[in-house]
Design goal:
By secondary structure, this protein is α+β, with helices and mostly antiparallel strands. The chain contains 7 helices and 21 strands.
């Protein structure tokens, strides 16, 4: 008997003992309370960001809220089969069947491993490519001690991660934080785990990883290698992205506008125009005229005033000086007789 066979026998016996030990007990029904608490927390944060005008934070928080709602919906739907499972009588798990499944897995998958210390069976998939997007290989790791006690007693771990640009926790359109959104395969996977059909379970999960459900992904493949421009919504590759230096928004080349003075890039909402020449300037590169309080570039200011206010101020100063020059002075000292007008009769 070789080592692989011994390993398979030992694993089959341990898995059977675990399943037999919980056979007479009702499965604990765990509702996704933690996920719901996260939804509520993100909602409060998003509303607060909206009220305070934090536009970038608001967009990020509402995006995270949408992801959290999808996660909560997924876990809530997963609770239904767990409740329905109490209506179905459990078949007795035979160690011989578990043993044959383990041998079949050894032949079917590369990287098959048994971790007795952590009660895990693991297989590795071949590199996965979906619609031209390379995602790499994944390890499907089943914790047999959690079968029947957890909604999803397995993890899907990226061995050669190529995560979505907008969220590094999404390593596959249907995998976030090492948890698989099973989609239409949910019932079949739950049934395989319930009956301890290990070969069917790993095969089903592997098939789900090789499929792509547009519209139900954590991140769509169209958005995988880039982020959406916060101004126009177009997807921008990482090398073509710009960042507004004021609000932090992600911008495409069409929406990133340079300040004509410092040459830093901004979104259109964070740029202003000089009130005189109309050049695009950032907030830091415009100064307030002390007269009219409008914003101007340095080229259009004279002594902290725009040209209009500057000229008006100097005209007023000149008028004041002229008025002082034309003030009448008395030709004769006070108290002395004034000369009579010419031609007056005596």
């Amino acid at each position: 008997m070789n080592e692989r066979t011994k390993m398979a026998i030992r694993a089959a016996v341990l898995i059977r003992e675990h399943l037999s030990g919980r056979g007479a007990q009702a499965d604990a029904i765990r509702l996704p309370e933690h996920s719901w608490q996260r939804v509520q927390r993100l909602k409060r944060q998003a509303v607060l960001a909206h009220q305070r005008g934090w536009r970038l934070a608001e967009k990020v928080l509402f995006r995270d809220l949408a992801d959290a709602l999808r996660r909560f919906q997924y876990e809530l739907e997963g609770a239904v089969p767990r409740v329905e499972a109490h209506l179905v009588s459990r078949q007795e798990v035979r160690p011989g069947e578990v043993f044959r499944d383990i041998l079949a897995l050894q032949q079917e998958f590369d990287g098959f491993e048994v971790d007795f210390e952590n009660h895990e069976l693991s297989v590795a998939t071949e590199p996965i490519v979906l619609e031209g997007t390379y995602l790499g290989s994944f390890e499907i790791s089943l914790d047999w001690s959690q079968i029947g006690d957890s909604r999803q007693p397995y993890r899907v771990v990226a061995l050669d991660p190529h995560p979505a640009a907008r969220n590094e926790e999404v390593t596959h359109p249907h995998v976030q934080e090492e948890r698989l959104c099973e989609g239409d395969g949910r019932t079949a996977i739950a049934s395989a785990l319930n009956d301890c059909r290990l070969y069917d379970f790993f095969t089903l999960v592997s098939q789900v990883l090789r499929t792509y459900g547009r519209g139900s992904a954590f991140v769509e493949l169209d958005d995988w290698n880039g982020a959406g421009c916060d101004s126009c919504g177009d997807i921008v590759n990482e090398e073509d992205q710009y960042c507004c230096q004021h609000c932090g928004n992600t911008l495409c080349t069409s929406c990133a506008v340079p300040c004509q003075h410092c040459q830093e890039f901004y979104c259109s909402e964070c740029l202003r125009q000089c009130a005189a020449c109309g050049e695009d300037r950032c907030h830091s590169c415009l100064r307030v005229c002390s007269g009219c309080r409008k914003r101007f570039c340095d080229n259009c200011l004279e002594e902290d005033q725009c040209r209009s206010c500057y000229e008006k101020t100097h005209e007023e100063d000149q008028d004041d000086d002229s008025a002082d020059d034309f003030k009448c002075e008395e030709p004769y000292p006070a108290g002395q007789p004034q000369p009579e007008p010419a031609g007056a009769s005596t």
